[in-house]
TrEMBL record:
It comes from Lutibacter holmesii. The chain crosses the membrane at residues 20-39, 45-63. It comes from the Bacteria. Keywords: Membrane, Transmembrane, Transmembrane helix. This is DUF304 domain-containing protein.
Amino acid sequence: MKNIYFDDISILKKNWKKIALLIVSLILILFGTFNDILSNNWNKWIKASGFFMFSVYYLLKVIRKNYVQWNKIGMTIRINSYFREKKVTFVEINSYKFQNNMLTIYQSNKTTKVDLSSIFEADKKRLIQIIKDNIVPNSIKM
C-alpha cells in the first residue's frame, strides 16, 4: 500500500515555507542578474542557487508518484504515475462514485477514472472528502 501526498495550495498560512522559498529564490535570481557590486563569478553562483531552489521546489511535485494538489477551483490527481495527471474542476462535477477501488468522477464534458487499489484506506477517504468539501452543493447527484 502507498500513501498519497496531499497539497492544499489555497491556504497561505500553511504554505508559508513554500512561498518563502520561492520569494528567496526569486530575490537571488534578480540579485544575481542585476547586481554589479559583486564580481561576475559571485553573481553567477547567486543566480544559479536561485534557479536551483526553483528546481527543487518543482521537482518535489514531479518525483512523487502519488500526488493530489487542489485549491478552491479544482484539483490535479496523479496516482501510480510520474507524469500523467488528471485535472478536475469542481464546478463541472456532476456526480462521482467510489466502487471496487475505482473513483469515477463524472464531469459535464468528460469522465475521469482513478484506480485507487494500491492506496491506503485513509488516503482514499481523504481524497473523497476533499471532493465532497469542494464541489458546488447543487451540482452533485449521488
